[in-house]
């Protein structure tokens, strides 16, 4: 049995998820079906999903050890540079699908097994480290803005909680689309950073100069009332996370009087990822990268993500 280095959940710890992380040797991936291939990973990136996995959310003890990681770029068996679409059809899951590291081993390893149809070509001019940021957080933000938020029909966008992967992606993409973007953050430094991206940075709960047509909501209970109050008639409030509470109070009078749409989403389709890759390559849009960490220091990368101080994506360089 051939082995490889990997970062994996060896147990669960809801209080201190970093204590549940192990970096060490794991068996190389086994191809479960004939249409699967092995990708040599060159770059990956972390998501909050990885910390939730270490807490035991979405995993069972009998699945351990589970290699973490949803996002990656790498080289396929034919030598082509590819980007991984991380959603795998899984009939046994109630959702009908899973993300890598939930049922199948993830990308924080030297190699990862995926269906061949889950590999998309890396566009010319887009670095692997940048592409590795896109398949989860950036794809979610792209779908929130486009398919769900119908941002083409919008003039102004509000992004709650800028600094996290999805929110920062939404700011960058909406600015690149030519929209007026407002973004909130409790952190003054992050407000300065988001202003540098082209958004108007405001404190949480602050009154905006105008009502917006699309709200990108990943925070939850702490910001949802502000999202409702900031929405223009007919606006779309698109939700993909609830880091600060998943049971907000909702003023239904405002919802029906303003004819608001509250929409939930997660991830996106392979075609949407392909469109996002092309958009970033052609518009020269690049992910906001908080830091690039060699795989030998992947534990430091997890600590950085867990600190809450990140602005953008934490990237793992598998070749350093």
How would you describe this protein?
- The two termini are 25 Å apart.
- The protein is α/β, with parallel strands linked by helices.
- Helix content is 27%, strand content 28%.
- It is globular, with a radius of gyration of 19 Å.
- The strands form four sheets. Strands 3, 5, 6, 9, 10, 17 and 18 form a seven-stranded mixed sheet that branches. A six-stranded parallel sheet has the order 13-12-11-14-15-16. The chain has a three-stranded antiparallel sheet with strand order 2-1-4, with no helix packed on it.
- The protein has nine helices and 18 strands.
- The chain has helices spanning 48-55, 128-131, 134-148, 165-176, 188-196, 224-230, 252-257, 270-283, 298-307, and strands at 3-9, 21-27, 36-45, 66-67, 71-75, 81-84, 87-89, 97-99, 111-115, 119-121, 156-159, 180-184, 200-202, 212-217, 231-239, 261-264, 289-294, 313-317.
- The mean pLDDT is 96.
- A hairpin with a 7-residue loop joins strand 7 and strand 8 (97-99).
- The longest helix has 15 residues, at 134-148.
